[in-house]
Amino acid sequence: MKEKEEVKKALEREKKKKDYLARKMHYLLSTQQIAGIYNSPYRKEPDPWEMQLRKAKPLRHKKKIEKNAMDLPWPIYADSFGFQTMPTLPPIRRQKPQGPFRDTVDVLQQRFKPLEPSVQVVASSSSLQLAQEKQRQEEWRNCIQDEKYVTYLFCFIYYILNLFSLSGMNTDKICVF
Predict the structure, then answer these.
(1) How many CA atoms lie within 13 A of 153 on its CB side?
(2) How does pLDDT run across 41-71, given as a tens digit for each residue?
(3) d(CA 177, CA 158)
(4) How many other C-beta atoms can be found within 10 angstroms of the C-beta atom of residue 56?
(5) pTM more than 0.70
(6) Of 48, 52, 46, whose CA–CA distance to 22 is shortest?
(7) Any stretches that span the bilayer, and where are they (predicted)?
(8) Fewer C-beta within 10 Å: the chain N or C terminus?
(9) Contact of 23 with 60, CB cutoff 8 Å
(10) Which residues lie across from 169 on neighbouring strands?
(11) What sign has the CA pseudo-torsion 44, 47, 53, 56?
(12) d(Cα 158, Cα 170) in Å, to the nearest integer?
């Protein structure tokens, strides 16, 4: 007797679960425009689960309770400027992260190791000009000949009439360096 009642209760529970599932999955029901996922066009008859979905009513969403602003408690925690400050929350229980991680000592050594700046950071922005100036000073100090080599001469040539020469003109050159 008890076994039959238990079997009946189990069947009723399964039926309730199926009805609830059918109500929950009612949106998968086929319509005139779109076939549902349980209604294959290649079958002669629709799936029994499709029939179950047709019988069931759709599950309704729970309505949210609207709270009145006057019913809400006024903020207890406020600083001198009127900003609300939330009380500190207890720490969240963290599970130990899974994975093959490096040892914490190695990570901390890498994190706090001294800075090794790159060449670009070590070099000064005016180092090129300083090096060029230093090279000029060394060249001047080691210079054997003090006179600068002039690549060309800029000469003015004046033609003066000469009464006693055959050419009739006398040239005097004045060169400017």
Answers:
(1) 7
(2) 787 887 888 888 888 888 887 777 776 655 6
(3) 17
(4) 18
(5) no
(6) 52
(7) 149-169
(8) N
(9) no
(10) 161
(11) positive
(12) 8
Who contacts 79 (Cβ-Cβ below 8 Å, separation ≥6)? Answer: 85
* Torsion angle (degrees, nearest 10) of CA 82, 84, 87, 88: -110
Full 3-state SS string of the chain: CHHHHHHHHHHHHHHHHHHHHHHHCHHHCCCCCCCCCCCCCCCCCCCHHHHHHHHCCCCCCCCCCCCCCCCCCCCCCECCCCCECCCCCCCCCCCCCCCCCCCHHHHHHHHCCCCCCCHHHHCCCCHHHHHHHHHHHHHHHCCCCCCCCCCCCEEEEEEEECCCCCCCEEEEEEEEC
Structure tokens at 115: 């800075």
Q: Look at residue 68 in the predicted model and tell me its pLDDT.
A: 64
Q: How many CB atoms lie within 10 A of CB 49?
A: 17
